[in-house]
């Protein structure tokens, strides 16, 4: 009779890059913690154990714990990922954690992705542009949409704005004004939406330069690191074709 092998319990050595930029006496440093691994433990659970039992000053973000909010993005052994979706059993005994680069550091593993995402949304005007929206009658039945197109839009809306694609992007680390895959994904979403009345020329004004679609170096880090497995490179290629034809 086949038996399921019992996994030996491990002691995890978790090294965290600590720094509080709002504290003038704080300097970047690595701090080591030890955590006893449990079955099906996620990195999120391990970090909570550290904060509850060892160091309550450790800062990191979380909301949903289900890979939906995108709050717990961080660099995990050199790669961007979500702490709540990362099982410790898939990692070695020694784990090194750092905040996502490219965003304003709040403290330790906490970064202000919300500020970056809002700035991107305002700059790229990521909302439906149509005449008469200010007099929109909410009691009127919405115009029907082809199921295939609705599914296409839904696929692009699965982005949780976690920032992993920005952290993995070489261009984003060199250019603060680069829209990144998350911004270009949003532009594609509204380009496909039949309710948006903007033309390709209008979208070109938003992303038709090196801070937009032509700044991408096609390193594919965004798609490789996306925790939702979005086809981000495909969206960038689609936009490039549209912008070139404009």
UniProtKB/TrEMBL annotation:
<dbReference type="InterPro" id="IPR036010">
    <property type="entry name" value="2Fe-2S_ferredoxin-like_sf"/>
</dbReference>
<dbReference type="InterPro" id="IPR017900">
    <property type="entry name" value="4Fe4S_Fe_S_CS"/>
</dbReference>
<comment type="similarity">
    <text>Belongs to the succinate dehydrogenase/fumarate reductase iron-sulfur protein family.</text>
</comment>
<dbReference type="InterPro" id="IPR001041">
    <property type="entry name" value="2Fe-2S_ferredoxin-type"/>
</dbReference>
<dbReference type="InterPro" id="IPR012675">
    <property type="entry name" value="Beta-grasp_dom_sf"/>
</dbReference>
<keyword id="KW-0408">Iron</keyword>
<dbReference type="GO" id="GO:0046872">
    <property type="term" value="F:metal ion binding"/>
</dbReference>
<protein>
    <recommendedName>
        <fullName>Fumarate reductase iron-sulfur subunit</fullName>
        <ecNumber>1.3.5.1</ecNumber>
    </recommendedName>
</protein>
<dbReference type="GO" id="GO:0051537">
    <property type="term" value="F:2 iron, 2 sulfur cluster binding"/>
</dbReference>
<comment type="subunit">
    <text>Part of an enzyme complex containing three subunits: a flavoprotein (frdA), an iron-sulfur protein (frdB), and diheme cytochrome b (frdC).</text>
</comment>
<keyword id="KW-0560">Oxidoreductase</keyword>
<dbReference type="GO" id="GO:0006099">
    <property type="term" value="P:tricarboxylic acid cycle"/>
</dbReference>
<dbReference type="InterPro" id="IPR017896">
    <property type="entry name" value="4Fe4S_Fe-S-bd"/>
</dbReference>
<feature type="domain" description="4Fe-4S ferredoxin-type">
    <location>
        <begin position="150"/>
        <end position="179"/>
    </location>
</feature>
<feature type="domain" description="2Fe-2S ferredoxin-type">
    <location>
        <begin position="12"/>
        <end position="101"/>
    </location>
</feature>
<dbReference type="Pfam" id="PF13085">
    <property type="entry name" value="Fer2_3"/>
</dbReference>
<keyword id="KW-0001">2Fe-2S</keyword>
<dbReference type="GO" id="GO:0051539">
    <property type="term" value="F:4 iron, 4 sulfur cluster binding"/>
</dbReference>
<keyword id="KW-0003">3Fe-4S</keyword>
<dbReference type="Pfam" id="PF13183">
    <property type="entry name" value="Fer4_8"/>
</dbReference>
<dbReference type="GO" id="GO:0008177">
    <property type="term" value="F:succinate dehydrogenase (quinone) activity"/>
</dbReference>
<dbReference type="InterPro" id="IPR050573">
    <property type="entry name" value="SDH/FRD_Iron-Sulfur"/>
</dbReference>
<dbReference type="GO" id="GO:0009055">
    <property type="term" value="F:electron transfer activity"/>
</dbReference>
<keyword id="KW-0411">Iron-sulfur</keyword>
<dbReference type="GO" id="GO:0051538">
    <property type="term" value="F:3 iron, 4 sulfur cluster binding"/>
</dbReference>
<dbReference type="GO" id="GO:0022904">
    <property type="term" value="P:respiratory electron transport chain"/>
</dbReference>
<dbReference type="InterPro" id="IPR004489">
    <property type="entry name" value="Succ_DH/fum_Rdtase_Fe-S"/>
</dbReference>
<keyword id="KW-0479">Metal-binding</keyword>
<keyword id="KW-0816">Tricarboxylic acid cycle</keyword>
<keyword id="KW-0004">4Fe-4S</keyword>
<dbReference type="InterPro" id="IPR025192">
    <property type="entry name" value="Succ_DH/fum_Rdtase_N"/>
</dbReference>
<dbReference type="InterPro" id="IPR009051">
    <property type="entry name" value="Helical_ferredxn"/>
</dbReference>
<dbReference type="InterPro" id="IPR006058">
    <property type="entry name" value="2Fe2S_fd_BS"/>
</dbReference>
């Amino acid at each position: 009779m086949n038996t399921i092998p019992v996994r030996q319990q491990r002691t995890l050595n978790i090294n965290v890059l600590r720094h509080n930029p709002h504290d003038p006496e704080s300097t970047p440093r690595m701090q080591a913690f030890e955590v006893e691994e449990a079955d099906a433990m996620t990195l999120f659970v391990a970090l909570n154990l550290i904060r509850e039992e060892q160091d309550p000053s450790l800062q990191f973000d979380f909301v949903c714990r289900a890979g939906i909010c995108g709050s717990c993005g961080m660099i995990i052994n050199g790669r961007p990922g979500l702490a709540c979706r990362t099982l410790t059993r898939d990692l070695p005994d020694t784990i090194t954690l750092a905040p996502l680069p490219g965003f304003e550091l709040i403290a330790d593993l906490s970064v202000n992705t919300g500020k970056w995402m809002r700035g991107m949304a305002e700059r790229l005007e990521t909302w439906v542009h149509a005449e008469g929206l200010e007099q929109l009658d909410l009691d009127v039945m919405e115009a029907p949409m082809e199921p295939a197109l609705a599914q296409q839009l839904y696929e692009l809306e699965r982005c949780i704005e976690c920032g992993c694609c920005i952290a993995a992007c070489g261009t984003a680390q060199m250019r603060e004004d680069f829209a990144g895959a998350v911004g270009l994904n949003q532009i594609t979403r509204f380009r496909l939406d039949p309710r948006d009345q903007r033309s390709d020329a209008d979208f070109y004004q938003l992303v038709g330069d090196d801070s937009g679609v032509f700044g991408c170096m096609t390193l594919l880090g965004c798609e490789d690191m996306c925790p939702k497995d979005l086809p981000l490179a495909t969206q960038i290629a689609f936009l490039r074709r549209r912008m070139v034809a404009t």
